[in-house]
Amino acid sequence: MTRTNKQIARPKPCAICLFISGSFLFCETVPVPGKVGLWSKMEKSENTRVFNDEGNFDLLGFLYEIDWTEGWIIGLVIWHVMMFLVSYRARHKINIQCALFLALSTLVYFSEQINELAANNWRLFSKQQYFDKQGMFISVLFSMPILLNCLMIVVNWLMHTNGALSQLIRHRGRNMND
């Protein structure tokens, strides 16, 4: 893949990128003057780890490029762990899980607006610009863990439903024998 100062070759879509972003747009193809942060590093650097040799998106390389010492990123990771623990502890309390599921789903729904707000005000809380137009960063670090948490809640609901149906079938079987 040949790169010049004027244009960077567009990466080919991969399954992970399509799943995470839901679109074919992964990062901008033309560098913007004065651009700072993770996205400018990806565009300028020849040895970036975000795209592999074939030009496909590399999730581990993407995660490597993030500065994990920033306070707000540490806070975000702690928040995700806390939400996971809350949903795990509330696995027998369906009402709490419903409220948590609705709250988390609402956050994912508004992640595009959160991304725009963060892109406009990143200097207030971050050392570099992480928030691109396509929302790759917010999709990977914000929405994906929330969706995994929601998936865990749905699996728990299915297990509870299966247990209730099994109990109902056993109860009906006993009543029919009487």
The unreliable regions are 1-35
Radius of gyration, whole Å: 22 Å
Order of helices and strands: HHHHHHH
Helix content: 55-70%
Shape: elongated
> How many structural domains can be distinguished in the coordinates?
2
Q: Give the number of DSSP strands.
A: 0
Strand % is under 5%
Q: What is the number of helices? A: 7
Q: Which structural class should the secondary elements be placed in?
A: mainly alpha
Rounded mean pLDDT is 78
Could you characterize what this model shows?
It is a single chain. This protein has 178 residues and is mainly alpha-helical. The chain folds into 2 domains: 1-65, no CATH class; 68-178. Helices cover 60% and strands 0% of the residues. The chain has 7 helices and no strands. The longest helix is centred in the C-terminal third of the chain and has 42 residues, at 136-177. It is elongated, with a radius of gyration of 22 Å. Mean pLDDT is 78; it is low at 1-35.
